[in-house]
Structure formats: C-alpha cells, structure tokens
Known about the structure:
The chain is an alpha+beta fold and 94 residues long. The protein has a domain at 31-91. The protein is built from 4 helices and 5 strands; from the N terminus they run ββββααααβ. A hairpin with a 2-residue loop joins β2 (10-15) and β3 (18-23). It is elongated and about 70 Å long. 11% of the residues are buried. The model is unreliable at 1-9 (pLDDT under 50).
Amino acid sequence: MVTCFFLFGLHYSQKEGVILVEEDFRSRTPWNWQPYLSEMCEEVGVNYDRFMEGLANNKSDMEIAGELDVNPRAIGHLREHFENYGIGSVLGQD
C-alpha cells in the first residue's frame, strides 16, 4: 500500500514503512488579478498622487473630486477599489 500527501511544497509518499520525500516546488510568475490603482486613475484622468493625498487626509469624495475637477462617482469607485484591493493585487510566487 502506498500513502501520498503534499505538505509545505514537498511530496511525501510512504511505501512499505519507508517515507520518501520529493521536492515539488516550481517557480511561478506573480500576476495581477486586478488592475493597479494608478492605472485606473490614469484611465479616468485623475492624478494618482493627489488622489492618494486626499484619501490620506480623510477628504470626502466630493472634496477630492472638486480639487481634481472630476466626477465624484469616479472618485467613489477609485476609493472603493482602494479599500477592497489596495494599490495592487499581486498573486503567485516567485
């Protein structure tokens, strides 16, 4: 009887009382599953640095939109994205 399991990147198998360990680690390229916040700001014509400064200063969507001369709904969507995903959403491993 052979028993196998995978733990901490290693593949373990046991056959006739002997435990065999094989490394099963492959380098994987990180990827984004959401666009970067800076890219989203650029798409709608919002200065990323000024937007982040507004968030840091606890300004409302209306205040930030007024300073940047954009629609408050755009600022609301950007704020929601930041609060849910941060400035970038990198997954994977290197």
